[in-house]
Write a structure and sequence with these properties.
- The protein is an alpha+beta fold.
- The chain folds into two domains: 296 residues, FAD/NAD(P)-binding domain, CATH 3.50.50.60; 109 residues, Alpha-Beta Plaits (2-Layer Sandwich).
- Strands 1, 2, 3, 6, 7, 8, 9 and 18 form an eight-stranded mixed sheet that branches. A four-stranded antiparallel sheet has the order 12-13-11-14, covered by helices on one side. Strands 4-5 form a two-stranded antiparallel sheet.
- β12 and β13 form a beta hairpin.
- α1 runs parallel beside α3, α1 runs parallel beside α10 and α6 crosses α7.
- The longest helix has 24 residues.
- The chain is globular and about 65 Å long.
- 50% of the residues are buried.
- The protein binds flavin-adenine dinucleotide.
């Protein structure tokens, strides 16, 4: 490999100047000082160069990559977990909110799930409910068909830029440390990892810097829809204000455990397969690995306690089985990367419209209280009555680094607006738009903000 095919990354002080290892995987680390060790500077192989690189394969990332691929861009999709879908799959969230007014890929994914018999067979109202395993395989098929290069088990860890423009990302995986060159990058990590590593400014949490609680979700079986209908949040229940939640909380308490979330809910998929959300872990930061680990362990332990509580009631719960828990706990919010426009609470109140709209959000404000003690007293809407509003493409374009877009929950918005646009119908729809803009920008050698909006040919109606 020639020298220009290597990306030099300075990872350590000049003091650690041991000769470069022959094997790409080898790392040279100097003897520890008091609280740090020094890594030697080394050269990282550039695996390949792409038109569009998408980091994170949640609802936003898969949609972005599929659309970029379909628009003719050479596209790479990187994901740290072992499947595509993000919270939809590795998080066990089977519930697509704000999907009704979405055409494009959101509609296509719903149709694809119906064809695979992976769509809910019980009425769920305006929310689209699906089978996680069918979603996994469908997203893989769609990505491969769109000629997207998928790399699983690969974590984005660093970014390189020249004259303020992102040029490469660096990843870690079983294959060691690798670099990937790109023209346009899209951060769909949910947590804004790429933007943060590239040096972008961001906001986190409410005005006191506190984020909403995390939740460990799970799939259950061994029960029959008709026998536990009173405890299920189906279409009929949603229409009358979801009294099922109170009944479910009381049932779990009767079985011996008070759930950490005061409004637990059971979401139907099939007659004998449901998703359960009954856990809240407060005060943890989604960008801190130790905190996410602690929340995951606590959340999973509580899910088992809840299952035991319900099983102990006997009757329709007697054969209740826990089928799967999320690979990691569901993180509702983390970094909101500064963009060229910041979607605000005011946009929700006004019902803002933009010429460069990438998504029309119809879902309201849904803030899960940041403190346990406020859970039953604070309104989810935070006193904000929202109208359907648009997200402009400018809030998907990073302000501090060139050549970088965001899609999904890490776009530029304030605390209240985020709690509304973050749901997956919107994440996927804005992801698809970002993929198209990125592909056009790469094709024409432009920055995303310089792509002529009429060329994007995008509609939110
Ligand atoms: C508990 C909970 C309940 C929710 N309930 C609903 C609901 O009922 N309906 C609804 O529509 N929405 C719901 N949401 C919101 C919704 O799930 C998220 O806002 C949505 O998934 C955002 O999509 P995303 O693609 O931006 O992020 P994510 O789904 O979080 O996907 C991000 C992806 O990036 C990957 N990734 C992260 N960091 C890296 C890295 N450094 N390198 C490589 N890959 C990386 C992750 O593994 C993941 O696959 C809920 C969220 C939570 C947490």
């Amino acid at each position: 490999m020639q020298r220009r095919d290597f990306l030099s990354a300075t990872l350590a002080s000049a003091a650690a100047s041991a000769s470069l290892p022959a094997a790409a995987l080898a790392q040279t680390v100097s003897a520890p000082a008091a609280n740090t060790i020094s890594e030697a500077a080394r050269e990282i192989p550039v695996v390949d160069t792409y038109d569009v690189i998408v980091c994170g394969a949640g609802p936003a990332g898969v949609a972005a990559a599929i659309e970029a691929g379909r628009t003719g861009a050479k596209t790479l999709l990187l994901e740290v977990h072992g499947c595509l879908g993000g919270v939809w799959t590795s998080g066990c969230l089977t519930w697509i909110i704000d999907n009704k007014n979405k055409k494009g890929l959101v509609a296509e994914i719903k149709d694809g799930l119906r064809l695979k018999k992976g769509a809910a067979t019980v009425p769920t109202g305006s929310t689209f409910s699906f089978d996680v395993e069918q979603m996994k395989i469908l997203l893989e098929e769609l990505c491969l068909k769109a000629n997207v290069t998928v790399r699983l088990f690969t974590r984005l860890v660093s970014a390189a830029q020249k004259d303020g423009r992102l040029t490469h990302i660096v990843t870690e995986s079983k294959s060691g440390r690798e670099a990937w060159g790109g023209k346009i990058f899209i951060d769909c990590t949910g947590d804004g990892d790429l933007a943060a590593r590239a040096g972008c400014n961001f906001d986190y949490g409410d005005s006191a810097g506190q984020g909403q609680p995390m939740s460990m979700l799970c799939l259950i079986s061994g029960v029959k829809y008709n026998e536990i209908k009173d405890f299920i949040r189906d279409e009929a229940d949603s229409k009358v204000g979801s009294p099922s939640k109170k009944r479910l909380e009381e049932a779990i308490i009767k079985g011996g455990h008070k759930p950490s979330y005061a409004r637990p809910s059971l979401h139907p998929i099939y007659d004998d397969l449901l998703m359960l959300m009954a856990n809240h872990e407060y005060g943890y930061n989604g960008t801190n690995a130790s905190q996410v680990t602690e929340a995951t362990l606590k959340g999973r332990a509580e899910v088992h306690q809840i299952i035991h509580s319900l099983q102990s009631l006997g009757g329709p719960w007697e054969n209740l089985r826990l089928m799967a828990t999320g690979e990691q706990i569901g993180v509702r919010e983390s970094r909101r990367i500064h963009g060229l426009y910041t979607v605000s609470r005011l946009d929700l109140i006004k019902g803002s419209r933009f010429e460069d709209a990438v998504c029309r959000v119809t879902f309201g404000v849904d803030v899960h209280s940041v403190k346990k003690e406020d859970e039953t007293t604070t309104q989810y809407s935070r006193g904000t009555s929202s109208k359907p509003y648009d997200i402009p493409v400018r809030s998907l374009i990073a302000k501090d680094v060139q050549g970088l877009m965001m899609a999904g929950r890490c776009i530029s918005g304030d605390f209240v607006a985020h709690s509304s646009y973050r749901v997956t119908g919107n994440a996927a729809y804005m992801g698809q738009a970002a993929g198209r803009v990125a592909a056009l920008a790469a094709k024409k050698n432009l920055l995303p903000q310089h792509v002529n909006w009429s060329d994007v040919n995008w509609s939110v109606e």
